[in-house]
Amino acid sequence: MNYYTDNPSLKHHLHHPSMKRIVELKERGFADKDKYDYAPQDFEDAMDSYEKVLEIVGEIAGETIAPNAEGVDHEGPSVANGRVTYASGTQENLKAVREAGLMGISMPRRYNGLNFPIVPYIMAAEIVSRADAGFENLWGLQDCAETLYEFGNEDQRQRFLPRICAGETMSMDLTEPDAGSDLQSVMLKATYNEADGHWYLNGVKRFITNGDADVHLVLARSEEGTRDGRGLSMFIYDKRNGGVNVRRIENKMGIKGSPTCELVFKNAKAELCGDRKLGLIKYVMALMNGARLGIMAQAVGLSEAACREADAYAQDRKQFGKAIEKFPAIYEMLTLMRAKADASRSMLYETCRFVDIYKALDDISKERKLTPEERQELKKYSKLADAFTPLGKGMTTEYANQNAYDAIQVHGGSGFMKDYACERIYRDARITNIYEGTTQLQVVAAIRHVTTGTYLNQLNEYDKIEYKEELQPLHARLQAMTSKYATLVEKVTSTKDNEYIDFHARRLVEAAAHCVFGYLLLQDANVDDSYRRSAEVYVRYGEAEIDKIHTFIEKFSPKDLDLYRH
Question: Cα torsion at 308, 309, 315, 321 (round to 10°)?
Fold first, then answer.
């Protein structure tokens, strides 16, 4: 079983026309080809390299990670004497990905990475998540290396990045017992010792994924007497130096293979990453955006797994003399699950492409001055990435939960039993719309792009694409959906009442998402007719949802807020 080759949708998104520009920027005119024997010679060679690595990921996911998933879920990690021991299946998974050289995929070759763009890296994350979402939390945290690469100095890069590429694990230590979503309240203390020239960390961190990792990025209060985000800095803690112990592992609903730890820092020696006072304002924001892409990939992998489990069961299960997939009540669920999974994947890779282009240009800007055209391109894609990340994270994780819920429903009573994978998928999916920023926080980030017109402008760009004749009716319906969305935005924002706008923010963000997801599936169908069904089904669903939103807002006035206030 290969989780890459058995899913043609992945190859479809990997070979998007934008990849030409992404590879051109990432490879800097293929300058590495004479320095590294594994560096690509040209665009075709680069794409072939991505395919081959994704095939390896797919094989490990299908042959090792997925078969281990149930055992890992039951065994889980353990803690003794302040150190974590992974479940035996997790250890086997880590050995397989390390031996295959699948750590440090996106890191530059000078640090022993593969220098892959975000698109194939996130594709690998989706494949791993479909096999076991809990393991993706360990493997995917190598994404912290992106932040270290972006904001650390060259000495730090040289010391730490080759270790990550060789297979060492990472964690990001942000939240505390009194600082969850409100990271401005972080109080872990960072003290500089003038005598030895080192920083020391003291305090407690909670809900830290993979908290006994080899290398940690830690948010701590470096400025004494401060209480807000301006007093926070980012630090690198190396487990080899000691000073951090795992007090306990949380007993969680799902993703049980991934240890979520409470950490105690006692004079833990650390080093400053980047500049003081920018820990939250700049570095954690970048870190969280990268992590949100990873959670989107996790959600899409879970959606895919839920669809496949439900489909397989509905084909096998016979009731009243026929397979249950033949009943309208069931085939409607299955088809909508597939449409949501396909739409989620399209959103994921559209967002990845935006991130790829702006990050590559930002990296190039540190080597040379960008041309005016490149500066404009950087500005455009940075804004789109900023808009699409919260929209995508919010919607794909909600859909992962819906698909996991429906997979259980298709299984009936059997779905409630631990004999079937859908029970684990259901539990694993539940965290996706909570961590790295709840759906409610994604709405807070996304509403700005509703009110300033970022989404509407991008929808107008999608509208200009030339679509096949047979897709024109679908295109017309998307135009009508977009028009209705624009009317809703105008109606709500024209009140100039901030509480009223905030109250309807989620509805407006969801309406924007239905239009965006519909257009992305229309583009998929424009290239490959196999997406036609999902596009048709999703647009019908999106139309109905926007109509519901429209009805609710039309009948709601600012004075009705009194009904809901607490």
Answer: -160
In this model, does residue 180 exceed pLDDT 90? no
Mean pLDDT over all residues of the chain?
Answer: 96
152 within 8 A of 163, measured Cβ to Cβ: no
Beta bridge partners of 232: 221
pLDDT in tens, 137-175: 998 887 889 999 999 999 999 999 999 999 999 999 999
CA distance 220 to 392: 29
Residue whose structure tokens are 């509407």: 456
The H or E element spanning position 247 is: strand 244-249
CB 241 within 8 A of CB 215: no
* Residue 389: both structure tokens together: 């990340």
Tokens at residue 374, please? 């490149």
Q: How many degrees, rounded to 5, is the angle at CA 142 between CA 136 and CA 147?
A: 135
Cβ count near 486 (within 10 Å): 18
Place of tokens 């299960």: 317
Map tokens 């209705």 to a residue: 484
Q: Are 103 and 91 in contact (CB under 8 A)?
A: no
Is this structure's pTM higher than 0.90? Answer: yes
Burial class (CB in 10 A: 0-12, 13-18, 19+), 477: middle
Tell me the pLDDT band of 183, cut-offs 50, 70 and 90.
confident
484, burial (CB in 10 Å: exposed 0-12, middle 13-18, buried 19+): middle
